[in-house]
Amino acid sequence: EAGVTQFPSHSVIEKGQTVTLRCDPISGHDNLYWYRRVMGKEIKFLLHFVKESKQDESGMPNNRFLAERTGGTYSTLKVQPAELEDSGVYFCASSQWARRTSTDTQYFGPGTRLTVL
Amino acid sequence: GIQVEQSPPDLILQEGANSTLRCNFSDSVNNLQWFHQNPWGQLINLFYIPSGTKQNGRLSATTVATERYSLLYISSSQTTDSGVYFCAGQGGSEKLVFGKGTKLTVNP
Predict the structure, then answer these.
(1) Using H for helix, E for strand and C for coil, what is the string for chain B?
(2) Is B99 close to A103, i.e. CB distance below 8 A?
(3) How much is the pLDDT for A103?
């Protein structure tokens, strides 16, 4: 079974440009999460989809970030326009189910390293 | 939300030594996971352990939920164990809250 995949693995762009990151979750996983680790800081949550719906987007830093999950399959995270402080590693994770009183293992993708010059 | 603290921040070992990494969390958690970030930056799942003890080869983990901590044990360490170890907990929501990590260096 394929794991969580992310594309691209690396992206180098200039300040003001637009970048779109893609995540393909494990097949059958309804839950999809985005996290990021900016330089020298801990990994932080960005948002959570349940199928195609945004369940929690409390971690999105500002309106330059837009996440979508068309048809409840893959997800994209667009940064427009990119700023220097957006540099870091963006991780995607998926889990199979999460009931109100229980949770499930989140499996992480390899990450996309974003560098904004 | 919950806060997660890891200790020690850095650990240097000789190959073959044993080690214990600790994770404290500020409130009760529904889930706790341990990860190893390898030199390529990938986050590898080690354990899903909201409570109890699990073992996988040379690694084992124990979570004492009532006392709000988890321990990761590495026995007979190898150079390939080097990297950053993260613990992450889920409180009242689905998101994982990560600690700052323990950077482990195993020297030959």
Answers:
(1) CCCEEEECCEEEEECCCCEEEEEEECCCCCEEEEEEECCCCCEEEEEECCCEEEEECCEEEEEEHHHCEEEEEECCCCHHHCEEEEEEEECCCCCCEECCCEEEEEEC
(2) no
(3) 63
